[in-house]
Amino acid sequence: MMWKKVEEIVARWRPEEGEGLEHLILRATPDGYSVRSNVIGPSFAVSYAIDLNKSWRTLSFTVDSVDGRRREFRSPAPGRWEDGNGNRLPVFDGCIDIDLSFTCFTNSLPVRRMAFAKGQAHEFAMLWMPTDTLDPFVDGQRYTCREPGRRFHYEATDGAFEAEIVFDDFGLVSDYPGLFRRVA
User: Is residue 169 in a domain?
Assistant: First the structure.
């Protein structure tokens, strides 16, 4: 699947349950892509920034919560992480992609970064950040291509969760049943 070229996209998602809204701007840069977003949920509000290279590998990300918490991470090499002060974080060795629980945008990262044929599955060790604590840990995930460039079966490798995720022509989530839905 050849994804459509991204110059600038504005996207919004709502949670399927409860109140909330995410407003995201994705822009092409000379070195890759810049993502800036604000997410308001029923009991939280965060802004986040992600810088990606041209192949959609995460180079850095920052999360700021309205309650004053801030998390900052950089990936100086694939599968290597450090905090905002440059301290190496070996617990995340092998994690190429991130998954921020308060947004469906990060589901686009492995799908855009990897090539998938119909029926093909890839497993990933993700740097996963929960909404409540913003303290990340390693999470195993599997994506299986149902329809190239359009529909993927997502599942946690521990069996705790699974869903059929639908993507648009740019590789952004349009429907994540039970969690998020794209809005105009």
Answer: yes
